[in-house]
Amino acid sequence: MSVIPMHPEATTDPQAIRWVIPAGTLPVVGEIADAPDELGTMLHSEDVASIEVETGAVVIRLADGRSWSGTGARVRDALSAALQHPQCWRPADVVTEDDMLRAALQDVLDGSVGDYIRSHGGEVTIVSAHDRHAEVRMAGTCTHCPAAGFTLHSRLESELRARFPDLVEVRATEEPGKVARRTWLTLRRRSA
Known about the structure:
Helix content: 25-40%
CATH topology of the largest domain: GMP Synthetase, Chain A, domain 3
Number of strands: 10
Number of domains: 2
Number of helices: 5
CATH architecture of the largest domain: 2-Layer Sandwich
Oligomer: single chain
Strand content: 25-35%
Shape: elongated
């Protein structure tokens, strides 16, 4: 059994740490109702207040009165062991494939791809994520940028596909009220 790589990142909440893991390690997103082994025990005890899974991270919030200096090593070891059993993680709500796609797309737009687009005065928002198809709306300087298609295809595709390998296509549209121009980007699976 190989160890899943992970590292901690601070959050604005001193009781919470974001444990970065490879995207797609867990088949769930959102709040967790139960986790495997010791991590599940800690969630149902007075040690851990909540666990939330993102496409590339697990955010663990300690219960009030607990500290990372006192409990952190146990949480880290418990998370490492729990990651070995991805099928045993239970979300608080039913998670669909559409939820997974939307979360992956939001993660990409909140990360370096979104930062790049915003740095040029552009904006990309999610319109829909359904049946392995994603649609985003381009606004700001992206609206008439001749490189917008390239940015979406080269940057968004690789990042999104890393988090959601079953992606079929991304549809990119412009902000309503602008010159109607629809750009359809079909993302093909790369051969291994």
